[in-house]
Write a structure and sequence with these properties.
By secondary structure, the protein is an all-beta fold. The chain has one domain (about 15-94): Beta Barrel (Thrombin, subunit H), CATH 2.40.10. It has strands spanning about 15-25, 30-40, 45-50, 60-65, 75-85, 85-94. The chain has a six-stranded antiparallel β-barrel. The N and C termini lie far apart (about 40 Å).
C-alpha cells in the first residue's frame, strides 16, 4: 500500500525566488537582515534566513520589500537548521 503526503496548507505555494530585507519585530532591534525566499502563497512563505535575533518559532518579522501578496508581516512557524548560520524557515502571514 502506498502512502501519499497529504497537503495541509489551505493555499497553494508557488516557487518564488527573491532576496528580501526584513526586520525583527522585537524591542531594541532596528537592524535590517537579508533572506532568500523559496516559495510563496497568500498565507505564508518558505525562506532561507541567515543568523539573526528572530530565528525562533513564534517570532514576528516585517518584510521590507514588495511581494506579490497583500501581507508584509509574518510569524515564524518552524525552523530547520541547515548550517551554523543558515536556516530554512516557514513563515505564516499575519
Amino acid at each position: 500500500m502506498e502512502l501519499k503526503y497529504a497537503e495541509k496548507r489551505r493555499d497553494i505555494r508557488y516557487p518564488f525566488l527573491k532576496t528580501i530585507d526584513y526586520v525583527c519585530n522585537i524591542p531594541a532591534d532596528a537592524a535590517t537582515y537579508k533572506a532568500v525566499t523559496i516559495n510563496l502563497s497568500q498565507s505564508g512563505m518558505c525562506l532561507y534566513m541567515f543568523l539573526s535575533p528572530c530565528i525562533n518559532e513564534g517570532h514576528e518579522i516585517s518584510i521590507q520589500d514588495t511581494l506579490p501578496v497583500s501581507r508584509q508581516k509574518g510569524t515564524i512557524r518552524w525552523v530547520d537548521k541547515i548550517e551554523d548560520d543558515l536556516f530554512k524557515v516557514g513563515l505564516m502571514f499575519v
